[in-house]
Amino acid sequence: MARPITLFTGQWADLPFEEMCKLASGWGYDGLEIACWGDHLDPWQAAEDDSYVKAKLDLLEKYGLKVYAISNHLKGQAVCDDPIDQRHKDILSSRIWGDGDPEGVRQRAAEEMKMTARAAKNLGVDVVVGFTGSSIWKYVAMFPPATAEMVAAGYRDFADRWNPILDVFDECGVKFAHEVHPSEIAYDYWTTVATMEAIGHREAFGLNWDPSHFVWQDLDPVGFLWDFKDRIYHVDCKDAKRQVGNGRNGRLGSHLPWADPRRGWDFVSTGHGDVPWEQCFRMLNTIGYTGPISIEWEDAGMDRLLGAPEALEFVRRLAFDAPEAAFDAAFSTSD
Amino acid sequence: MARPITLFTGQWADLPFEEMCKLASGWGYDGLEIACWGDHLDPWQAAEDDSYVKAKLDLLEKYGLKVYAISNHLKGQAVCDDPIDQRHKDILSSRIWGDGDPEGVRQRAAEEMKMTARAAKNLGVDVVVGFTGSSIWKYVAMFPPATAEMVAAGYRDFADRWNPILDVFDECGVKFAHEVHPSEIAYDYWTTVATMEAIGHREAFGLNWDPSHFVWQDLDPVGFLWDFKDRIYHVDCKDAKRQVGNGRNGRLGSHLPWADPRRGWDFVSTGHGDVPWEQCFRMLNTIGYTGPISIEWEDAGMDRLLGAPEALEFVRRLAFDAPEAAFDAAFSTSD
Amino acid sequence: MARPITLFTGQWADLPFEEMCKLASGWGYDGLEIACWGDHLDPWQAAEDDSYVKAKLDLLEKYGLKVYAISNHLKGQAVCDDPIDQRHKDILSSRIWGDGDPEGVRQRAAEEMKMTARAAKNLGVDVVVGFTGSSIWKYVAMFPPATAEMVAAGYRDFADRWNPILDVFDECGVKFAHEVHPSEIAYDYWTTVATMEAIGHREAFGLNWDPSHFVWQDLDPVGFLWDFKDRIYHVDCKDAKRQVGNGRNGRLGSHLPWADPRRGWDFVSTGHGDVPWEQCFRMLNTIGYTGPISIEWEDAGMDRLLGAPEALEFVRRLAFDAPEAAFDAAFSTSD
Amino acid sequence: MARPITLFTGQWADLPFEEMCKLASGWGYDGLEIACWGDHLDPWQAAEDDSYVKAKLDLLEKYGLKVYAISNHLKGQAVCDDPIDQRHKDILSSRIWGDGDPEGVRQRAAEEMKMTARAAKNLGVDVVVGFTGSSIWKYVAMFPPATAEMVAAGYRDFADRWNPILDVFDECGVKFAHEVHPSEIAYDYWTTVATMEAIGHREAFGLNWDPSHFVWQDLDPVGFLWDFKDRIYHVDCKDAKRQVGNGRNGRLGSHLPWADPRRGWDFVSTGHGDVPWEQCFRMLNTIGYTGPISIEWEDAGMDRLLGAPEALEFVRRLAFDAPEAAFDAAFSTSD
Amino acid sequence: MARPITLFTGQWADLPFEEMCKLASGWGYDGLEIACWGDHLDPWQAAEDDSYVKAKLDLLEKYGLKVYAISNHLKGQAVCDDPIDQRHKDILSSRIWGDGDPEGVRQRAAEEMKMTARAAKNLGVDVVVGFTGSSIWKYVAMFPPATAEMVAAGYRDFADRWNPILDVFDECGVKFAHEVHPSEIAYDYWTTVATMEAIGHREAFGLNWDPSHFVWQDLDPVGFLWDFKDRIYHVDCKDAKRQVGNGRNGRLGSHLPWADPRRGWDFVSTGHGDVPWEQCFRMLNTIGYTGPISIEWEDAGMDRLLGAPEALEFVRRLAFDAPEAAFDAAFSTSD
Amino acid sequence: MARPITLFTGQWADLPFEEMCKLASGWGYDGLEIACWGDHLDPWQAAEDDSYVKAKLDLLEKYGLKVYAISNHLKGQAVCDDPIDQRHKDILSSRIWGDGDPEGVRQRAAEEMKMTARAAKNLGVDVVVGFTGSSIWKYVAMFPPATAEMVAAGYRDFADRWNPILDVFDECGVKFAHEVHPSEIAYDYWTTVATMEAIGHREAFGLNWDPSHFVWQDLDPVGFLWDFKDRIYHVDCKDAKRQVGNGRNGRLGSHLPWADPRRGWDFVSTGHGDVPWEQCFRMLNTIGYTGPISIEWEDAGMDRLLGAPEALEFVRRLAFDAPEAAFDAAFSTSD
């Protein structure tokens, strides 16, 4: 049986949840990865109010959709970030932002992440997808010099802030799937290694593998699946296109907005970029990943109503199952 | 006559200035690009005390060295940076750091940059090399989302803080050469374009071209010289090696220290990296750059006493002058 | 609303114009870029005879087709070319070829280009697509040596011959879109820069951007659109495939005919080659190009009746409009 | 008229022949390349029993299928191989394996190849596809050192064993098409040159061109067609994907099974790999190859029932015929 | 202090040992990696006769040479190989070859490997370099099909044959350094992983890292050092040049002799090939490898008397030590 | 004994011949490839005047120089060229240019080529290096369309004009070595194939292999040596650097002068470009080329007095002889 394909609702949170369900269902998606913002899912209510949960599940059922994971990138981001500034205010609810005092914001965000684990449990979902934030991302240029001790302190800060959250995840029997992503504590291969060490490889903490962030950093998304095969808890399909090679577009994006062709890379609709999708899906078969493939649709140069169904069709065609028998079995002789 | 080759003293500021002079002279350098830190050059004294200036110049003369430019990267960095934190404290003098209040640090740093222009004038030097800092570098990952207006505000902040400094440069007949570098307002091609626009292309503000930052960002250092040919005020030779290609080392460096082979790129001794030096030097001939080539020696995996003379030899061999006549002139007939 | 897609009739001029209309309409094209040869369009008649124009427009209307541009590559080629030889005779009408005296041919061709501007005006079309020819293309190998003065004379010859033609274009309110192409005055990036300078950047003279000629010369068709964004007057979609890489096929084509796989590159049906179409169409959106995309179908290894509808489908799928809002708008909070 | 597309039955020999016919016919294949194993074709019976032949042909006709070639890779392999071991036993019938004495196995295999020529003749087919085996493949690593004389002896052994077989082919008016493939006497370009020389370029011996073995060896399958154009007797379409580039997957495959993503390359469904199919098909048009294109479907990571019809559709779209006239004929003038 | 550079005597065993010493000493080598063939070193005598050992050590001392490792590739090769044939006879002494019965050859070779451990101990050397041989190398093409069980049996055969040898190594306090190399049990990355597993990662068994075999297999020799950093017991510097890229030269070498430019790769003098030497040496510094760098000189297209001293000079220039302090220490302020 | 290295005097013909001898001798060159222009060599005098020849040879002997080949590119160019124009006038003597009538120029140039054969014979030299010119080079862009017949006529014109010249070469026992070069009848791989066919592969006509023209056309200079191994009569070492890759510099050079960094490629001093010199020299050893290696020094961005000795040192280091014995001979056992 083919793997379920879901749509992440994060980029559609301006639409009412039911409209989102209607669209996704109409295009043929098997389910949703529901974002904990807009009116799509309030983790506090879902953690505390059974009728709220039931209403959500009923709505999904009405549209023939499943939910395998919920996502709370925006609040997770605030747990470790430093500085906390206007950018965070723009994406946090007033409940979390409060008076904007950085440490208060971080602690309220951490509380919401615990609530999100409880919400997941109540929804019958065993994975929460999200970001961790990072207090050391700001050192990425390594100038002014950041010492090894400053970097180490960042990983400790992450562990200190997330271990209590993960304790709640363990209580709920839910896992957290961090999306490896610039601006997070783990943003590439070796930072993922260091992050896993910082948290003692505890099972509650795994990865949401999204290859779009790999290709422009020159990382191999396929080998990454192999190396972290016991920590791949969720898969987000976003694509990215390298646009370097003319000598003027740089890897770091030049502070230019999405869809500006002078950026050195950009997010594009799944199948329009440089991710080697088929090799990725084959590796997911090999490592025995059994969860959904969720399309996180982001392309500032294309209409999402055009892109989302096209992306589904693209993924369905390539995310085929492995066969039962090896092809050279047919050569065997048993006369 | 061959172009002078100088040594930047920034990475040697732990040595007394005279020892630096002795070493550079012994290796055969033509001069120094003197750093405004350690005991190499105090811009306040140089701006205000003629005897201090004379002593420096006498010392240079004793060792047969010239000075074509002085550098003040560390204080320039603090003019626009945000946040201002421990990293800045580690590289600033107590005179600039003071009580560490960010806005105070920025303003004191700006004052020192004005002093540096005056120091340059007194030394008979017409170029100050340095950094600008940036209030928007922290947005480089573009998540949490930074709006176009936030980015525009960063360029305006740069202009507001540097225009008064550049007024002093104009008074002194000295030019500022900004090193295009991650963590600065201009860190690649298109940010350099935007920076020049922000400051109205005023002549006092130009560039210190250092190709090491270009190669790992996939930028073409040769074409950059052509496009900004009227603003190339100084040349720093640092080299960088891309170490991606194994699927695990990433472009962003993984917060790993210099010389760790898991970084996706690293600074290396001039001639050991990916900069197309000969093409660069040929382009410098073409655009009519007449200043020095200054070796900024940085390689955390090599002993600097081994590297500095080797780099000089490397550059001397490739930075040859253009010839007088075209080679096909010999085909002409005048029988 | 989606951008109109037209078919250039130049490679179909052996068919009667009405048959061409029928075919294009049947395949679903939105319009035609009409060639001024065969019976497709006689610019002299169209310039002087209103009934001729009306008949053409009626025919287009009958087939539901629009016309946004007309093309006269073959006569434009003769305006500057040197030598004028059998190849020109083969593609020129006897009216232009006359007795074949080179200077006479050039002048009659220039007259026809003026007529073509008038024909465009009468047809309600504001762009004429074409070639310029070049008196210096023959120097491309630079051996026997061509002096800088010889090259400069070629650009002057171009300006001298085309300025009077462009005066007529200005009178008619029509623009000329030169196709950057080997054998023309502007055949790559830097020759386009020089050509624009030669003609004082006058607005009547712009470009027909056809990326097929870029990819085998190692030019970036996307960056070209950005750099000449105010002079992109028309877009022709032709594709080309590089066939080098076996050590024997050379970039210059070895005088081999089209469709010979030993050529180092070849024209192929749109979507079968190396043009990065999607990136190109996205850039056209970015620079605000509002004209048609015209498919110039050339593939000597494929049947045109198979290729023309396939190319239309290919372009329709990728030449999508830009969306209204940025995708990260959905992250905003307004609780 | 379009070129026939057939399906090679070798990887389907576990299915009864009629079921194979039914499947292939249902998917739209034009014919079969019938394997001489399983119950698909017994060359001994086909050589000696007319009713057996008639029954096969009737069955094909019932399903609207043609046969252009038959294949006997497994027995051909045993003709020259050394050592002969368990791997051979697993793929040979007991008639050929007998007591397993190596020389006996080789001679019985050679007899079967003669029978296969006769079978082909009786079926009205003029090409037998297969392998030759090789006594020197085991020297491929060149350590322990293999002398030039040892290698030369291998080519002589091949000629000695195959010339008598080819004599029978000549008698039957049938040609043998060897598949260039690792583990065979000819496995790349220069070994094919040497093989042809060993056999005196006799016409009975030609090639079954299968590009899947070329791409991972860095060979150009297109140029190969040109260079051996008079010896291309059959075409098998198998695809292969290079999976190197992460520094850990090696060209030699690491003894890993098919479909393991750690292999440096793998066979994949036609159109999913690195073969430049369109360029290949265009070259087949150019060299005047008039035979079938046979899909040899092998992909251990995909279900064959999904892959075989998809591969057919892929090939049909790209294996188009060459056109009648050159496109620039339309530029000619005959007013 | 700089790392010692030694010369491997295997390719010079036609010369008397003393002449070898004289040459190496004259060129400036620090020592020898002595081959156990020719008259260079007889492991049986060295294991059993103290005066033989003393004579060797005296000779080395006379020429100012050290020995850090001895090598016995040729006998190690025979321990697991299958088939055993003329190639083995050509490189084995008659003591080991005996009557040529394969199993007898393997066992006598195993005995010599034990003796080599004892010889090493007596010479005061703690590393023996060599090959293992492999019973499954012959399956490298995977056709005729080799089952997973056949492959697994090969690793078990290796463990069964080498564990008793390694027991003797443990007794002697000597380690075995296997050279990862085609035709051996471990010939690339994943076979090295499997080999280590087969032998339970026992400490007696480690690696002789020779990057020449990596580059043509598309393996990253630098990352390999990191991943196996606790098992790098010796370093051999051989270089290899990829000669593919013309579409005709293949990765597998076409059975062509060394120095034939039609081979897809070849061994070349250190520094003339594709090994990224400087990156390798930097990684050796990083992982703390403290042993010698031994030049294994092989280049069939160059005179060894020219090449050996040139290679030494090349390696000396690049195999520099890591420095004491980081370069950015000079930025620190302590005013 | 090492291969002789000579200097081509063509780019030095503005200097008196004796000064040229002095320079070349001083730098250590073994001989000269003497150009038939300037005062270096007058082929008419050398053909007819023994004392002139003796004086030249005496001068060479005085400076310890040999001559292996003489060159007459400039006159050879005029034999087939069309059009003949100012560029030819600039490089031809008045004896050949005469009244400038194209056909007369061609015939007088042909006469001089015959004289050059006679001059070579008198000098004791058996190779004349040069160009052929081409009447079809002007068709290189293939637009306006050039028919296959027009191209064929060009090869016939070449054969018609050169066969009588080659008859004289045969009489003199001298060979003509054509330099494959854009603007000539043979300018790449396939045009060389066609050229050889046009002239019936007659032995008098061979090649002067100069790899600088290969690299920017993406041709493999090493494979070319193999394929034309029986027609490599002379070797000229010129180097070229590709300067494409920034999206703006094009393969065709943009009519820009030499040394302009915006050109897509340029001639550079031997060893500063993209020619794989060592692989080339190894192939020359393999094919048994026994002639000189002649440095044709062209680099418009470097002083020739600096470049010529540097190029000699570069070539001497890499153009080493092949060794006597294979390296693995040392593995053999003969105990």
Automatic annotation (TrEMBL), chains A, B, C, D, E, F:
Keyword Isomerase: yes
Superkingdom of the source species: Bacteria
One GO molecular-function entry: isomerase activity
Claim: Lyase is one of the keywords in the record: no
Annotated Xylose isomerase-like TIM barrel domain residues: 22-317
Assigned keywords, A-Z: Isomerase
Protein name: Sugar phosphate isomerase/epimerase
Lineage, broadest ranks: Bacteria, Bacillati, Actinomycetota, Actinomycetes, Propionibacteriales
